[in-house]
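ping. complex inputs:
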Amino acid sequence: MNYFQTNFNDLKDELETQLKTCKKFSEGLFLDISRGKPSQAQLDLSSALLDVGHKNLENNIPDVRNYGNLEGIPEAQKLMAILIGCQQEDVIIGGNSSLSLMFDVISCFFIHGIDGNPWCNQKIKFLCPSPGYDRHFSICEYFGIEMIPIKVNDDGPDIERIKNLVKNDQNIKGIWCVPKYSNPSGIIYSDHVVKELANLSPAASDFRIFWDNAYSVHDLMEPSDLFDIFYEISKNQKNELVIAFSSMSKVTFAGSGISALACRGKNLELLKKYYSFKTIGFDKINQLRHVKFFGKDKNFKQNLKLHMRKHAEILRPKFNLVHEVLEFNFKNNPIISWSKPGGGYFICVNTFGSAKRVVDLCAENGLKLTPAGVMFPYGIDLEDSTIRIAPSYSSLEELKKALEIFCACVKISALEKLLKMRR
Amino acid sequence: MNYFQTNFNDLKDELETQLKTCKKFSEGLFLDISRGKPSQAQLDLSSALLDVGHKNLENNIPDVRNYGNLEGIPEAQKLMAILIGCQQEDVIIGGNSSLSLMFDVISCFFIHGIDGNPWCNQKIKFLCPSPGYDRHFSICEYFGIEMIPIKVNDDGPDIERIKNLVKNDQNIKGIWCVPKYSNPSGIIYSDHVVKELANLSPAASDFRIFWDNAYSVHDLMEPSDLFDIFYEISKNQKNELVIAFSSMSKVTFAGSGISALACRGKNLELLKKYYSFKTIGFDKINQLRHVKFFGKDKNFKQNLKLHMRKHAEILRPKFNLVHEVLEFNFKNNPIISWSKPGGGYFICVNTFGSAKRVVDLCAENGLKLTPAGVMFPYGIDLEDSTIRIAPSYSSLEELKKALEIFCACVKISALEKLLKMRR
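pong. complex structure:
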């Protein structure tokens, strides 16, 4: 049924039907598709990592169990360089959270600045391609950084607007980018956009691109390539423009992976200094566990690929189910549109102005979604449009139930709106 | 030979002798007794922790491998509460480094303050009992915090001076304390000093005691008790005065332990908020590994005690060797004095004004000591007196060689001084 071509009375009947559907499916339900959490089956893929015991870790000189080695062990740097897409010598290995590394980088610049002028003494602004990752925006909030939303197109954030803004405002010091399988839109930045970013000429000499390459190997189908931004900044002699991040959180264990950042020149110097005051070194045993888990270093790439293929095999049916159910429900009733990403963790739904109502309706019916708005700076989705579906954690059966509720709630919200308009 | 009772020519001969001794022992030597690093034998005590594999970690609900649980798993909170000496509900578990937690706490107050007035907008001063832990002072330097040295007596820092200073200067916002087996002096704060600290009435409402209880269970002989500061602040209704820290770094693995902080009220609220912006949670698998390693929670205390006794058995002969060698060399030649701590990681040597020369001489002869001065704010030991010996890492044989060099260098520096005075 295409609601736009349906008369008032039939829409009223349809609303009754959907309310009943909702009631039927929501009985005693509590499901959560709000966060990109790996499922137990995905975590099980890395069980062997837990069994890299003391026999495997013995005879490491220098002893990984002891203090020291701020940048991380070389093999782990090599492994994470593959994930980030950079050179080994650019890498600092962190703890279990790349988010913490991003927070640390901002802290470092907040306290000491990059060019000797601490950010805590300045009005700082960041460009925020949105919809984007809510935790990036939260970091800005915590540091009192003003956020400027940037529209995300199919090929990446609106690059012309970015060029214009950074050229003219020296308070703009950064941009958050999730360049591959963007959270939540699922897009991959085009070569053109990456090249343009790597060639920015910002008014602020301490402007940095925060390149959160969280989903670099998280392909659902055949691996897709992201243009190499480190190559491009080298070519442009703008080596200090980029600070990149990645982590093993969605490769091995969400809570116990290893993370890394990569950058060059003054950035690397400042951040090594920062960490030399903050710690004697991150957990090297866990670094070595990851290294052993991915085999000999010449096989890292291949083994990583094989491992991620196993993730894809678990995730793909869930993404497919979402597409099938949405297709079935909305193919001939275009009240929403949605993304079909080739990887990452999210499907992004465009509700044409009903996001908040849909999220609330789902909540009332036992289905937790990411709160509407949080994917935008200050929680404000001007079009009240974007909803993020995270299908990874639920079983297929749970996900199917969740989608029934979701579809019914989408329909109810649209019917409410249409009936009101036609009254 | 007592140098003070020896004539000029005999002192000259003695100098020749000591120079020869130095030369004999330093041939091809490179030894390092500069840092409190556990030895391999100590690290081996926790090998079983590495073998807490996936079989032991399965069936934990909620799944420790996944995201979440900002404060840490309850059993780990219980375990670390024992180490810190506080209630389980006061505890946030961190990553592998308590130093990072201290840095984070200062960061949090630097960015947001405690009473709404960020420390980055204020002139901040800290009291620094010294000699003290160099990395505490480094944190102050990094944040531009002015350091005020406080003399350390046998019962703790000069409490009358502290009371006076904090009462009259509202820019004084903190004090660093290592209350048990202080680094490097080895003293334990007396009950009186702890009680006075827990009853401070600072001019600054946002003054905090940074209670780094790093060596709480690190006894070489029978366990010594430290007066319970959390009990005392409760009694005095000054619950927010203390933020305490400890870690497993010198219990299990120096580089891969778990750390914790403990505090109450507004402190805990602010720090939980800080971490909620910075991370989704620390490494819970490693928390659970530690929990499993120390057995059932009702046995934590006892098992921890037994485990620390094994450390003591490895460490005690090293400390004894230092005492024996120093005793043998300086019993009748009082050109230095030294501490005999009941635990911790350091022996503190008072060289009566020759610290820098002794450290330099040792370096020239292949023995690395902690740089003279670093145990004082701004690296300034006004009396140029304190040297820290860290005997834990070396084997007994290496330590013996190191001590031969050390004693010869101490003698040479004293002889140089005496000969110069008598010329």
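Chain A touches chain B through 53 residues (CB under 8 Å).
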